Amino acid sequence: MAFGSTALSSNASFDPFWWRAAPHEQKTPSVPPQRTDVAIVGSGITGLVAAIHLARGGRQVTVFEAKEPGHGASTRNAGYVGRTLKHGFGEIMEAEGLDKAKAVYGELMEAFLSVKDTIEQEKMQCHYRQQGRLLLATSPAMHDAMAREFALRETHLGESFATVSRAEQRDEISTDHYFGGVRIADHAGLHPGLYHQGLLDAARDAGVTICAFTPVLGFRKEEQGFSVFVKGTKVSARELIFATNGYGGKEFPWLNRRIMPFHAYQTVSAPMGENRVKSILPGDRTFIDWNFNVDWMRAAPGDPTRIIFGGLTGEIDADLRVMAERLHQRLLRVFPDLGDLQFDHVWTGKCGGTFDINPRIGCHDGVYYAGGYCFAGVPMGTLFGKKLAMRILGLPGGESVFDTPPPAKWFYHGNAWFVPHAIKWMSRGDR
Ligand SMILES: Cc1cc2nc3c(=O)[nH]c(=O)nc-3n(C[C@H](O)[C@H](O)[C@H](O)COP(=O)(O)OP(=O)(O)OC[C@H]3O[C@@H](n4cnc5c(N)ncnc54)[C@H](O)[C@@H]3O)c2cc1C
């Protein structure tokens, strides 16, 4: 493989593009308090949203973050805000009945709306826009299956959609690679770095203590609450939340056996001119195919001269220069004319998934947790962060259809070596 030949520009970076507009803090670690009402492990969307609501509910809250605030997937994602689950409405309806399907998808709607509410309440500027999403079919059969699935959602949930034929698709995206798709007009996109920055600012304004560069090493249950062990000291907490998703480890072994990490990869192009971006993506949607292992693309929020392209989810944490070349090849399958395009950024982040590919929220032995969102952590993390806070505050709104313990498997104790192979196997029907 020839490095530096095609995919990467001469000044390419391996940090997320989002960190340009929302630079990560490189502060010295804060001094942890001796005691706190609520200790939260992880400073991503889930942890910060929980922290904001708890602090406003009168609790003294401390967020512990192993690295800089927002180190995890919350500042590495694609900023798609939709109603996304790996299990279709039709699949749940068939397996568990209409009521269950409606309850599950009702909660996805709640999560979707919670992002807009949060942005409005906190008066955030994070390029949130309901620009619509185009889900793309990679075969005629997939197009038909999508049309059936979304017709069911329209009938039972009242969520409207439009089918886009292959002949119409070029009004949205300049390629013949796909076989049409489904357009959902109200789905949104945002700038993940600025969304996270807005949450961090709101948390600090609410009085939350953020202890960055302070990994939690473990905890012990006490008669009243927990001892939380961080480097060199112990913090007493009445309540404890784990919001570590794909970045969790042995400090909470029970959860570590139930949420598996896997990598996703993303790029942003060098500036190519607004007109060229518009000619490639005239529909200006968030675009994503309907495979199990998806490719996605959109104009970069906040910089319409660039495009975002991502994919190859679940690949082993490889050299990012290799991944840039591979993503470039995938991009050329969709847009063969973009041979001259180079990436200014290529980066990775860790998602978290459960064995049944459903997100979870719950409490195990007194410890609250939420995660396993796959590619839906922007809305689901926002909702579940709030729900965790409502539970601890004893307020209504904390209940969830996803509140069942995530399954464990006898062979999995935190070494996720097999996950890339499992994702490949589950993607075997993709084209
Ligand atoms: C490339 C990519 C694209 C994605 N695209 C989308 C998308 O478009 N839309 C969408 O909805 N979702 C998307 N996702 C998923 C989404 O980003 C995540 O589901 C979501 O950010 C999870 O948020 P979180 O707060 O639960 O966890 P994270 O943001 O991952 O935060 C967990 C934090 O916990 C910290 N931590 C871990 N262990 C410890 C410890 N022991 N002590 C202290 N701190 C600890 C970590 O350092 C990390 O900062 C994408 C993910 C990736 C990687």
Architecture overview:
With 431 residues, this protein is α/β, with parallel strands linked by helices. The chain is 30% helix and 24% strand. It is built from eleven helices and 19 strands. It has helices at 18-21, 45-56, 89-96, 98-121, 140-157, 192-205, 253-256, 274-280, 320-334, 377-393, 419-426, and strands at residues 8-13, 35-41, 61-64, 80-81, 133-136, 162-164, 181-184, 188-189, 209-211, 216-221, 226-230, 233-242, 260-269, 286-289, 296-300, 303-311, 343-353, 360-364, 367-371. The strands form three sheets. The protein has a nine-stranded mixed β-sheet with strand order 1-17-13-16-15-14-5-7-6, with helices on both faces. Helix 2 (45-56) runs parallel beside helix 6 (192-205), helix 3 (89-96) crosses helix 4 (98-121) and helix 4 (98-121) packs across helix 10 (377-393). The longest helix has 24 residues, at 98-121. The chain is globular. The protein starts with 7 loop residues before the first strand and ends in a 5-residue tail after the last helix. The structure holds flavin-adenine dinucleotide (FAD).
Give the CA-based shape.
globular
Low-confidence stretches: none
Assembly context of the chains: single chain
- Bound compounds: flavin-adenine dinucleotide
Give structural attributes.
nine-stranded mixed β-sheet, alpha/beta, 431 residues, 30% helix, binds flavin-adenine dinucleotide
